[in-house]
Specification:
The complex is a heterodimer of chains A (242) and B (226).
Chain A: E1 26-30, E2 38-44, E3 47-58, E4 71-78, H1 93-109, E5 118-128, H2 133-147, E6 157-164, E7 167-170, H3 174-179, E8 182-189, E9 194-198, E10 201-202, H4 206-235
Parallel strand pairs in A: 4-5
Antiparallel strand pairs in A: 1-2, 2-3, 3-5, 6-7, 6-8, 8-9, 8-10
Helix pairs in contact in A: 1-2, 2-4
Chain B: E1 8-9, E2 14-17, E3 22-23, E4 27-30, E5 33-36, E6 40-43, E7 48-53, E8 65-73, E9 77-81, E10 88-91, E11 113-121, E12 127-130, E13 137-139, E14 143-146, H1 152-156, H2 161-170, E15 173-177, E16 181-185, H3 188-203, H4 210-221
Parallel strand pairs in B: 3-7, 10-12
Antiparallel strand pairs in B: 1-6, 2-5, 4-5, 6-7, 8-9, 8-11, 9-10, 11-12, 11-13, 14-16, 15-16
Helix pairs in contact in B: 2-4, 3-4
The chains are: A alpha+beta (242), B alpha+beta (226).
């Protein structure tokens, strides 16, 4: 889709005033739900996402159990009021795809062998959407899993890069996503730098892909620092009593 | 309470080198380095680096005293929920009663709670529990309170000091299971107090002098203490 608006001006400033390598503001809070084993609330620009983690608990139905390891059921769901026009509630093709790729990303970081025949449920609820919800969802899921005390080899983190008006930029906003040329969300395991999620929509040359990829990884590491700080701040003894 | 400050670690945090220390519980080794795998409190007193979890499911080990809730009566035993990642099996040979085949429902039924012990854990973490020991029995009446299994030690206190204080001031009968369940029997007022204390301990796990503060809290509301 093309439009008349300039997504990026001659000075390299974007519509919301960000530079090419600037992320939208991020706010994360861990442990917001009392009934869930672990939870996280995340605001990333105008994205608002709530994640609840349950388990590990017995996998139901029984035939879905794996005798050697736990299974991860991530469920990505958009609220009806999360977008401009009302979204028809319930899983659709898009949210089932996102649920699948996030489940597979989380399987790479959780130490599943410790819980044979169990299931870990991750419910990702998108309350307000503004481009990049799958990245925000995976990032929030990482914090919620750590909050649930589930053993992991790393806290997963995700960030997107893309191409707008001929320039490669990081963390696309709503207009940039709708009218841009390409979107490349990636998820990484920040300690090892392993890629756990990679999708692309639009067209990029190999060079552009490489720049976008590096920018997104750099963005991931920035977000990862915020994630770690959030978890530490919540449980550090100085914050509670003496 | 050895070191003055308890250090919180998060998953994937670097803790040390395998050459100088051994990797203990809650850690994993990659390329000769030790990392934490869970959110918890760092403990590197001895030769091992351990991470004591702050949250999470109960991790069963053989011999633990636990409070289970019967889920289902089977033909030759019961399935018991013990707050772990999968339910445990209580076989009919592991109970103090003589049970005829198919007659299990007469002794224990869905919803009954029991004080039990972990008998065995196999490689795929299949659990068996037993009622065959003194101090193991069916719990009649009472009230069950859940807590984070990781704070079991704090609830018991140093040499059971904490639990004795709670018992003294609330005048309830209390049994604590390692799996994050407490069984309380007494008057409604006492049970309410126990519940309050447990949530206080849960909130202030990572702090010092908790036993004294709990005693103060209980003293305030107590009228006749023996």
């Amino acid at each position: 889709m093309k439009s008349d608006i300039d997504l990026i001006d001659s000075n390299g400033k974007r519509l919301d005033g960000r530079g090419a390598e600037d992320l939208r503001p991020i706010k994360i809070e861990a442990g917001v739900l009392h009934r869930a084993d672990g939870s996280c609330y995340l605001e990333w620009g105008n994205n608002k996402i709530l994640v609840a983690v349950y388990g590990p608990r017995e996998a139901i139905p029984r035939h879905s159990q794996n005798p050697l390891r736990a299974i991860v059921n991530a469920r990505y769901n958009m609220a009806a009021f999360s977008v401009d026009d009302r979204k028809r509630p319930g899983p659709d093709r898009r949210s089932r795809e996102i649920s699948k790729v996030i489940s597979e990303a989380l399987e790479k970081v959780i130490i599943l062998e410790q819980f044979p025949r169990a299931a870990i449920d991750v419910n990702i609820e998108v309350l307000d959407a503004e481009a990049g919800t799958r990245c925000a969802g995976l990032t929030a899921a990482g914090v919620a899993l750590a909050d649930a005390g589930i053993p992991m080899i790393d806290i997963p983190v995700s960030c997107a890069a893309g191409k707008i008006g001929g320039h490669v930029v990081v963390d696309l906003g709503k207009e940039e996503d709708n009218f841009g040329d390409a979107d490349l969300p990636i998820g990484v395991s920040p300690r090892t730098g392993e890629i756990i999620l990679l999708q692309m929509d639009g067209h990029l040359t190999v060079d552009e892909f490489n720049t976008a990829f590096d920018m997104a990884v750099k963005g991931c590491h920035k977000v990862s620092e915020i994630q770690k700080k959030t978890i530490l701040d919540k449980y550090q003894p100085s914050s509670e009593g003496k | 309470m050895q070191e003055k400050k308890r250090k919180i670690v998060i998953p994937s945090q670097l803790l040390g080198d395998i050459k100088s220390k051994n990797a203990g519980k809650g850690t994993f080794v990659e390329n000769g380095k030790i990392y934490s795998e869970i959110l918890g409190v760092l403990n590197e007193g001895g030769r091992y680096i351990d991470v004591i979890p702050l949250k999470g499911r109960y991790d069963p080990s053989i011999g633990d005293l636990i409070i289970g809730v019967v889920e289902e009566a089977l033909g030759s035993g019961w399935l018991v929920d013990i707050n772990a990642s999968s339910p445990a099996l209580l076989h009919q040979n592991e109970v103090p009663w003589r049970v005829d085949f198919g007659d299990t429902e007469r002794y224990l039924n869905h919803g009954d709670s029991i004080m039990a012990k972990i008998l065995s854990i196999d490689e795929s973490k299949k659990l068996q529990i037993t009622l065959n020991d003194r101090n193991l029995y069916k719990l009649k009446g009472g009230h069950i309170i859940n807590f984070e299994p990781s704070i079991y030690r704090r609830i018991m206190g140093k040499k059971y000091s904490m639990i004795e204080i709670i018992q003294k001031y609330t005048r309830c009968r209390i049994k604590v299971g390692k799996n994050g369940r407490i069984w309380v029997d007494g008057d409604a007022d006492g049970i309410e107090k126990v519940e309050k204390v447990i949530s206080k301990i849960e909130c202030e796990t990572v702090s010092f002098g908790l036993t004294n503060r709990v005693e103060e809290l209980l003293k305030k509301g107590a009228k006749d203490v023996r």
